[in-house]
Design goal:
- Keywords: TPR repeat.
- TPR repeats lie at residues 38-71.
- This is Tetratricopeptide repeat protein.
- It holds the Pfam family TPR_19.
- With 105 residues, the chain is mainly α.
- It has a single domain, classed as Tetratricopeptide repeat domain (Serine Threonine Protein Phosphatase 5, Tetratricopeptide repeat), CATH 1.25.40.10.
- The chain is 77% helix and 0% strand.
- It has helices at residues 4-16, 20-33, 38-50, 54-67, 72-84, 88-101.
- α1 runs antiparallel to α2 and α2 (20-33) runs antiparallel to α3 (38-50).
Length: 105
């Protein structure tokens, strides 16, 4: 049986091979096993954004900030994804949240 980590690794390799849609399917498998697998939500957010599925991208990037609310990078990623999806106010809000936190880990 595949583990979330091994499926995640397969998804990244698939993405690097150029098959973004298949990488998304692998990440969905990860999330079916562990719905709180942060790395999968983070990656799928980027992949959905690249596929033009903006609502899905933002939903997964938002989920990352919910799973790890004190993570500076998560809020920065949400800001970037929102910006790339044309959601400027949401991007600015996420950026402000990140800046209010500083770069703490």
């Amino acid at each position: 049986m595949s583990t979330p980590a091994s499926l995640y690794d397969e998804a990244v390799k698939t993405y690097e091979g150029g098959d973004v849609e298949q990488a998304v399917e692998k990440l969905k498998e990860v999330l079916a096993i562990d719905e709180n697998y942060t790395l999968a939500h983070s990656a799928i957010a980027v992949y959905y954004q690249k596929l033009g599925k903006f609502d899905e991208a933002i939903a997964h990037a938002t989920k990352v900030t919910e799973l790890d609310p004190d993570d500076y990078f998560s809020h920065m990623q949400l800001s970037v994804i929102c910006q790339r999806c044309g959601r400027i106010q949401e991007a600015e809000d996420a950026l402000a949240k990140a800046h209010s936190m500083g770069q703490r880990k």
